[in-house]
Structures are given as structure tokens and as C-alpha cells.
TrEMBL record:
<dbReference type="InterPro" id="IPR017237">
    <property type="entry name" value="RLMG"/>
</dbReference>
<dbReference type="GO" id="GO:0005737">
    <property type="term" value="C:cytoplasm"/>
</dbReference>
<comment type="function">
    <text>Specifically methylates the guanine in position 1835 (m2G1835) of 23S rRNA.</text>
</comment>
<comment type="similarity">
    <text>Belongs to the methyltransferase superfamily. RlmG family.</text>
</comment>
<keyword id="KW-0698">rRNA processing</keyword>
<dbReference type="GO" id="GO:0003676">
    <property type="term" value="F:nucleic acid binding"/>
</dbReference>
<dbReference type="Pfam" id="PF05175">
    <property type="entry name" value="MTS"/>
</dbReference>
<dbReference type="InterPro" id="IPR058679">
    <property type="entry name" value="RlmG_N"/>
</dbReference>
<feature type="domain" description="Methyltransferase small">
    <location>
        <begin position="206"/>
        <end position="375"/>
    </location>
</feature>
<keyword id="KW-0963">Cytoplasm</keyword>
<protein>
    <recommendedName>
        <fullName>Ribosomal RNA large subunit methyltransferase G</fullName>
        <ecNumber>2.1.1.174</ecNumber>
    </recommendedName>
</protein>
<dbReference type="Pfam" id="PF26049">
    <property type="entry name" value="RLMG_N"/>
</dbReference>
<keyword id="KW-0489">Methyltransferase</keyword>
<dbReference type="InterPro" id="IPR007848">
    <property type="entry name" value="Small_mtfrase_dom"/>
</dbReference>
<keyword id="KW-0808">Transferase</keyword>
<dbReference type="InterPro" id="IPR002052">
    <property type="entry name" value="DNA_methylase_N6_adenine_CS"/>
</dbReference>
<keyword id="KW-0949">S-adenosyl-L-methionine</keyword>
Amino acid sequence: MQLYICWKLAVPALTHHLSLLERYPPNPQDDLQAWDSADEYLLQSLVASQLDPQRPILVLGDQFGALSCALAGSHVSVVNDSYVSHKAIEHNLNRQGLAQVQLLSPLDDWPQQPQLVLGRLPKQLSMLEFYLAKLKPLLAPDSLVFFAGRDRDIPERAEALLSRYLGPTDRLLGWKKARAFVSRSDGKAPLPQPAPLSWPLEGTDYQLVNHANVFSRQSLDIGARLLLANLPQGRFDRVIDLGCGNGVLALMMASQYPEARYQLVDESYLAVASAKANMAGNLPTVAADFIANNCLDGFERASADLVLCNPPFHQQQVVTDHIAWQMFKDAFKVLRQGGQLWIVGNRHLGYQIKLSKLFGGCQVVATDRKFIVLKAIKRRTS
Ligand SMILES: C[S@@+](CC[C@H](N)C(=O)[O-])C[C@H]1O[C@@H](n2cnc3c(N)ncnc32)[C@H](O)[C@@H]1O
């Protein structure tokens, strides 16, 4: 059965859920919107499409559920390299009483021959390339691929990559500071998936693998470098690398303390996969778990001796310290009495104040022009 959605009827139906969307984790201190004009642009492209309920729709990069909520109940799979976005989508579908959608990571198998692909253009070119290389072999000759982004976030080479990886691509009119592109497969053999970046870790024999989208994937982060030069000494049985990225902090800690058990946690599936490859490739005998999660949700209280953390200072495109704050609060809960949280951050972010509030004090371990390494000890229970 072919379904044709009438423009006038569909626009309100497809967008009325937007005002109900919440960001995730809910943050009472901010009133930031959970969707933007790129989502609206993609929803409009749905209106002009003839949809077959039997054939899959693929959504790439939905952040908080703007696209998933509009498509709930149809044959839709939603891919995102973010555990937090997956939670956000589930949260918003539940709040609005909508059917769940299939949530996939970039590394899962995606549906074959989607009739329609709606993608948000990721800021990171490596993520876009990953999406496009994986998408091309799945496309049918009649698959329609829409990508949209906010003007300020669209990588310069996005349009060229769409043409190169998929085929003929049209740039649509700009609308509310967003832009969309529509592509079809050229039917040619797909380009291979670019290999993860791999580089030697300075001062070691280790090689670090970095999948697409991973933080500081081209070289060692300068904040991480300062923490690595000042790693904790002592006896640690259970160590958590919170926001592990490629796992460099846990890896270097494990090179000194190979007997400890490590948990490497990140919300990015590709970061977790990189961390796993790096531990397995460099220190294969170390006991380690690799976990995609939102901070330390669900971790056992009072169970860890040490948490290492180089916290993020933005969520999606928005600069915020609420994730860092959540990480510190979670670390406090998960540390046993006497356990330590070591963090590195930009000096101007004022993490001392936050840590002192939570732990009742913190020490400066090292500083340079830009960064500061801080240590906080959990002296009380709960
Ligand atoms: C500044 S990077 C640090 C990466 C790595 N530890 C390093 O030092 O190079 C922060 C990391 O936190 C992760 N992150 C962001 N939000 C998160 C969340 N809610 N839960 C877990 N990890 C998160 C990001 O994906 C990113 O890998």
C-alpha cells in the first residue's frame, strides 16, 4: 500500500510533538530547546515523500527524539553514536505515549534498502564519512536520502562528501538558518569505510586506535597529557575511566597498575569500541569492562577506589558544565570512603568550587597555562 501524506494535514501532525520534547538528562536549570530548525526541515521533507509502510525508514543522528517521535509506529530504525541520545529518545517517546522505535549504534547492522533516510549532518566530518560509507551499500535505486543541519554546524565538505559517497546531490533552499541536501545512489560500487585513525602514544610503545567521532581522535588531548604526567600513585583495586574516549587514561594507569580491575565508560559507542581496541591491543591481560552509559548510571555505590575523568564541557552543540557536574556527583556516590576522584579541566571552568562543595575540599595536583589537575578524596559515606 502506498501512503501519500498531504502537506497541509501532515505539517501540524508531524511537528506538534516538538513543543513537548525535553532534553536529556532533564536539567531544570536550562530552558534550552530539544529540537532545532534542521529537525523541522527534515520533518518537512517527510511531507513530500510517498511512504510505503512495509519498507524501512532510517534516521541518522536524531538527538532528543524530534524525528523519532514523528515516525514512531512506522517501520523506523534510529542510529546514533550516543547512549544519551538513545535514552533521550526513549524518554520522549514514553512521555508522549508513543511506540518505541528500533535504536541502533553506528556499529550495529542497519536495515537494507531503506525507502527514506533522514540524517542530521554531524559536526564531525569523520562521523559523516562513517555514516555515508556504511549507508551506500544499503541503498536501493529509489532510496531518498535527506541530510540537514544548522548553517553554523555544517562541515564545509559535507556536500562534496554526500556526492562522493552516495551520488547525485541537490542542495535545497536555506530555511530558518538550516540547510538540507537530498541525494540518491549513483549505483556505483561503494567507497570503503575509512580506517580508524591510529597513532603512537608519545613516550610509550603503545598504538592508539580512534574510530570516527572520538574526542581528540587525531592526537593526544592537551588536558589529558597534563593528567597523564601526574597520574595517581597508590593501591587501587577498582578504577573507573569516566568519559574514557579512546581509553588513554585507563590504559596508562593500567600500565602502572596492571593488577587492578578497570571500567571504561563513555556515552559514545565508537569511543567505547576504540577504548576496547586500545586496551586489547596494548595491554591484553588487564581485566577491563567497556561500558556505554550516561555517566555512572546504575553503578554500584561505594565500589570504586579511583575515578579518572577529563570531563566534557558541551553536550551536542551546546556548551554546558552540567555533564561534568553529573560526573562528579556520580563519582562521589560510586567511590568507597577514602576513594579518590582525579580530574583535569580548563582552569577557567572553576571545577575546584564544584569539587569542594561535593567532597568538602580538593587539592591542586598540577597546573599549566590552560589546565588544572585536581584530586578530591571521599572522606564521608553517602
Ligand atoms: C574531554 S573527553 C575525554 C576523553 C578521554 N578521557 C581523554 O582524556 O582523551 C570527554 C568524554 O566524555 C564523554 N561523555 C560526554 N557525555 C557523557 C556522558 N553523559 N556519559 C559518559 N560519557 C560522556 C565524551 O563522549 C568524551 O569521550
